[in-house]
Amino acid sequence: MKNSLGVFILLALLMSGCGKNEPSAVSGNELAAKNAKLAELKQQQTQLTNQIAALEAEIIQLDPSKAIQPKLIAIAEIAPEGFESYIDLQGTVSSENISYVAPRNGMGGYVKEVLIKEGQFVKKGQLILKLDDQVLKQSIEASKTQLRFAKDLYNRTKELWDQKIGTEVQLLNAKNNVDALESQIAVQEEQLKTYLVYADQSGIAEIVNIKPGELFSGVGPTGPQIQIINNNDLSVHVDIPENYSSEVKPGAEVLVEIPAVGKSFKTTISRISQSVNAASRGFTAECKLPSTAGLKPNMAATAKVLNHSNANAIVIPVNIVQSDDEGKYVYLMENEGDKKMAKRVQVTLGELYGDQIEILSGLKPGDKLVTKGYQDLYEGQLVNNI
């Protein structure tokens, strides 16, 4: 039997003693009578409880197998510890220094000579490609021939003009022809320089997809024809859902992991986009990476953005937190005399990360938290820790 039997008997007595509904307004004598009856019933309950306890003790003495066995549990003593929670994100390694080489003349031309190979390190300003400039050189030679003739004509006209022969218009036309041809040749010689293609940054020639005789325009049917990458300035770009916009700020600490090379880096957010992507409903954040061998653009990365830190937190496994209509709760083990009893405690939850959750109230250092066997426990149940 359990003490609940006494409660049941008391309820039965109350029901039998109050067989009919009483009016809402009672006299002083009626109230005194009811109080007296309640005191009498409580006395009877106490007597019944004592009788039940005595009978249970006698039964256990006669048959020890009837004794209530404590439930086996495991406990962990609560102690403050450091706790951090992160926002887990996916990202991609990017290079700020990727050069897609394009023709300097804006039009391109047929390749005469390729001076680099894929995988080769090139320096900024290094000549990497020569375009076929034969037609332009022929045009320059023709212009120079015309210039020599124009200068000769001008000199002759000038001599005649000095002798008062001819007109001023003839002299000016001759001079204008010389000036025009000189300007034309200067432009052509500048154009000739654009037929030499130089590297605009130092780095590795990641793509060299062009051969002599082919048309160089910067982009071919399969993509860039020459690409130079400098991996000394890498970063990770991550997409962050817009609901984290109030938590993620420039300067926030980030733990970046690159699974392909098995490396991780502690860094910070250096830049955040000022608009939300309409399709993904997120914004982009950039985290700078140190110059490290093995990292390549477009590698997959994970980024953990620190959004909460508590150096003196109470943290427990989230799986042992239970809930009902009254809220969230856990069980503690408490000593009552020589017995160990289960005690239910309401808790207030904080941040969650992984399988650990922060407890804001309800627990204190030194509490003995039930970590195993908490299922089906009830308040006051006998327990024994293993």
Structural overview:
- With 386 residues, the chain is an alpha+beta fold.
- The chain contains four helices and 22 strands.
- The strands form five sheets. Strands 2-11-14-13-12-15 form a six-stranded antiparallel beta barrel. Strands 6-5-3-8 form a four-stranded antiparallel beta sheet, with no helix packed on it. The protein has a three-stranded mixed beta sheet with strand order 21-1-22, with no helix packed on it.
- The two termini are 27 Å apart.
- Residues 1-25 have low confidence and may be disordered.
Strands, helices and their partners?
Blueprint: H1 4-17, H2 28-62, E1 71-77, E2 81-100, E3 109-114, E4 121-122, E5 127-131, H3 134-162, H4 168-193, E6 196-198, E7 203-208, E8 215-216, E9 219-220, E10 223-224, E11 226-241, E12 253-258, E13 263-272, E14 282-288, E15 300-317, E16 322-324, E17 327-336, E18 339-346, E19 348-353, E20 356-361, E21 368-372, E22 383-385
Helix pairs in contact: 1-2, 3-4
